[in-house]
């Protein structure tokens, strides 16, 4: 077996989910700029040998209500602008072959995934338009239930009209995504929605950024039964790096500080709300990071790096090595686990899994091969239509 660093440097590494497009649009930040508290840029991707990234097009559902499609297009344009500004170092990806070719050419491959089905405004025409613009997966819900699919994030909210999973239009969405060759992403959905998706789809599914509920008890993670079902479907589950999804001790301790953080959020967001403007997500991330550094860091250590590796290990053992991948959620949350500060640290995951006995062939699948296979299978199914 090769030295882990050399092996990682030779592997095709694909990340299934990063929220970086908000930075492009809201902060006027370029992908070649220094990280400035972020988690992913061109330099860190190069250091971590990250070949391809699915950029999440996420529309905050309250501030952008009534303008979901507008914000979706604004964020897609933000990615296109980065491609225009970095023609020699970035390339757009539409197919698995595009990822492979970009990797061979030493160029970073940018791909698009919509996070939250509210972006389509209950219109299959918008879904088709987004596909024409290059979107290659859609996360069916975010933390909000939409017009056609229940989310895991608001099941306890009695004011939300739920559908008991997918409604009839939601099933039409799945079938149209299958026809288009757009991957169906079940991260964020309710358990009932998850099972309804599997009853409806005829193509493999993905969970672009979800970890294991058996290890961290949150509805954002998948149960062992769900992990096995994704495997039976020949799909892939991509492990999320968010500390609240990988370590129960951290999740409990961080949640306990919510009452202390709420007044900070209110003060920081007030000027935006007074102007009638949506609040950039970066405002909340900055507050969380400052709060942790000032009040918690001396007594509350970061979530252990091993907790993250435990989730990779668990998904690989329960679903099988052919059904696990990387779904970092970079730039979508505030505080990374110990030993991970950016995409530059991805080789540490390879080294840790090697120490646990994973072979190079197994790691090639986990690092990118499994997602590449599912991507190809979904497009092949669509070609049969």
Automatic annotation (TrEMBL):
SUPFAM superfamilies: Metallo-dependent hydrolases (SSF51556). GO terms for molecular function: metallodipeptidase activity. Pfam families: Peptidase_M19 (PF01244). It comes from the Bacteria. Its EC number is 3.4.13.19. The keyword Protease applies. PROSITE patterns: RENAL_DIPEPTIDASE_2. Transmembrane segments: none annotated. GO terms for biological process: proteolysis. Coiled coil: none annotated. Keywords: Dipeptidase, Hydrolase, Protease. This is Membrane dipeptidase. It comes from Granulicella mallensis (strain ATCC BAA-1857 / DSM 23137 / MP5ACTX8).
């Amino acid at each position: 077996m090769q030295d882990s660093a050399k092996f990682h440097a030779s592997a095709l590494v694909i990340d299934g989910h990063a929220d970086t497009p908000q930075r492009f649009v809201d902060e006027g930040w370029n992908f070649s700029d220094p990280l400035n508290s972020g988690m992913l840029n061109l330099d860190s991707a190069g250091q971590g040998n990250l070949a391809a990234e699915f950029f999440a097009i996420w529309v905050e559902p309250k501030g952008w209500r009534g303008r979901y499609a507008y914000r979706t297009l604004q964020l897609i344009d933000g990615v296109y602008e980065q491609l225009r500004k970095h023609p020699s170092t970035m390339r757009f990806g539409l197919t698995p072959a595009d990822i492979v070719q970009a990797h061979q050419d030493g160029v970073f491959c940018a791909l698009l995934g919509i996070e939250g089905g509210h972006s389509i405004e209950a219109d299959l025409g918008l879904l088709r338009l987004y596909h024409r613009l290059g979107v290659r997966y859609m996360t069916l819900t975010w933390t909000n239930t939409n017009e056609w699919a229940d989310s895991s994030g608001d099941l306890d909210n009695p004011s939300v009209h739920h559908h008991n999973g997918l409604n009839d239009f939601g099933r039409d969405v799945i079938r149209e995504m299958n026809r288009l060759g757009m991957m169906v992403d079940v991260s964020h959905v309710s358990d009932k929605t998850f099972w309804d998706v599997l009853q409806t789809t005829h193509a493999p599914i993905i969970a672009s950024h979800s970890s294991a509920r058996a290890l961290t008890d949150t509805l954002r993670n998948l149960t062992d039964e769900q992990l096995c079902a994704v495997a039976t479907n020949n799909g892939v589950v991509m492990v999320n790096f968010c500390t609240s999804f990988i370590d129960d001790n951290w999740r409990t301790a961080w949640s306990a500080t919510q009452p202390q953080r709420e007044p900070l959020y209110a003060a920081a967001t007030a000027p935006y709300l007074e102007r009638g403007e949506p609040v950039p997500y970066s405002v909340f991330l900055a507050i969380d990071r400052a709060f942790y550094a000032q009040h918690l860091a001396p007594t509350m250590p970061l979530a252990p790096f091993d907790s993250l590796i435990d989730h990779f290990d668990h998904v690989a053992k329960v679903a099988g090595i052919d059904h696990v991948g990387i779904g970092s959620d970079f730039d979508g949350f505030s505080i990374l686990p110990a030993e991970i500060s950016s995409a530059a640290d991805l080789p540490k995951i390879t080294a840790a899994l090697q120490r646990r006995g994973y072979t190079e062939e197994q790691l090639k699948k986990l690092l990118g091969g499994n997602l590449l296979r599912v991507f190809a299978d979904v497009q092949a199914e669509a070609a049969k239509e």
